[in-house]
Specification:
56% of the residues lie in helices and 14% in strands. It has 11 helices and 8 strands. The protein is elongated and about 70 Å long. The chain binds NADP nicotinamide-adenine-dinucleotide phosphate (NAP).
Length: 273
């Protein structure tokens, strides 16, 4: 039997999660209820996905067996104060997607032990290709974890990780889509520079990246080997690679992940002090 899922917040990430859950056909829209501060976003979510809606967070908490906190980190404390008594009484499973908010921070805002899951999903949830990292506290049991996996598997893949790795995960899966979009734009710009129409360039580049990523994921062949396979001696690909290596491409990308991880750590410390 599917649990009733409540989602507080109807912003970008919430919409991605709802879209993923509904289009996967694994969740009944009647068993999902979303709340948000402003009504217009809720109306759009209801129109698109036929889920239940309310502007009252407490109504969503009363409805839900599992509640997903999908608001900005600065709003988490206020929401917990608002629904705390209901969560404690119902022993609701609480899932946070807020970047930088730790499990202990969440636990400390409740008066009694609560089941807490901390996740870091990403927006490709919209096309059911999210990557979600999951950490949890000792109150969570195997059945709870199965429920969480069922929700997050409906729109992508998951990895259970120790919480101390959440900052690097925030960089490598939460934020990396931004890096990839920039890379797609740059590849397409290069193609446009050499005469390819822009719309054709975006279609070709995005499909090539999708295909390359699938090959890495599904073949389990080392990316270096796949690179070697398309790099013939004196050929075209090696010219592109040589240019990137000369300009420090790998180092820049590694540094971007390092900086992103550090920023996540800084934000996390600010919220959790
Ligand atoms: N975007 C990403 O790629 C991504 C990836 C991983 C994790 N996250 C995490 O996901 C969370 C949400 O991010 P987002 O990008 O979806 O933000 P967002 O688009 O700003 O959505 C947040 C939503 O929360 C609503 N809200 C604020 N206070 C509320 C309250 N007291 N009661 C009910 N609803 C309230 C806002 O409503 P109004 O607009 O009406 O104020 C807004 O619709 C963040 O904690 C973020 O760290 C995001």
């Amino acid at each position: 039997m599917h649990p009733k899922v409540g989602i507080i917040g109807a912003g970008n990430m919430s919409k991605a999660i709802v879209a993923g859950m509904i289009t996967s056909n694994k969740f009944d829209p009647n068993l999902i209820k979303v709340s948000n501060r402003s009504f217009h976003k809720l109306e759009k979510v209801r129109e698109s996905y036929r889920v239940r809606i309310s502007t009252d967070n407490r109504k969503v908490a009363e409805f839900a067996d599992v509640i997903i906190l999908a608001v900005k980190p600065k709003h988490i404390t206020g929401i917990i104060e608002e629904i705390q008594d209901i969560i404690e009484e119902k022993n609701t499973l609480v899932i946070s997607i807020a970047a930088g908010i730790t499990i202990s921070y969440l636990c400390n805002h409740f008066n009694s032990p609560v089941k807490i899951i901390r996740t870091m999903p990403n927006t490709p949830a919209i096309v059911q290709e999210a990557m979600t990292a999951i950490s949890y506290n000792h109150n969570v049991n195997e059945d709870d974890l199965n429920i969480v996996q069922e929700i997050f598997h409906s729109f992508g893949r998951t990895e259970i990780i120790p919480e101390e790795l959440m900052d690097v995960v925030t960089a490598v899966s939460g934020s990396s889509p931004a890096i990839v979009y920039m890379f797609i734009e740059a590849l397409a710009d290069g193609a446009v520079l050499k005469g390819l129409p822009r719309d054709v360039a975006y279609r070709m580049v995005s499909q090539s990246i999708l295909g390359a990523a699938k090959l890495v994921r599904d073949s389990e062949i080392h990316p270096g080997q796949l690179k070697d396979n398309v790099t013939s001696s004196g050929g075209t690909a090696i010219e592109a690679l040589y240019t990137l290596e000369k300009k420090g491409f790998r180092g820049i990308v590694m540094e971007s992940i390092e900086k992103c991880t550090e920023k996540s750590d800084t934000i996390s410390k600010r919220y959790n002090k």
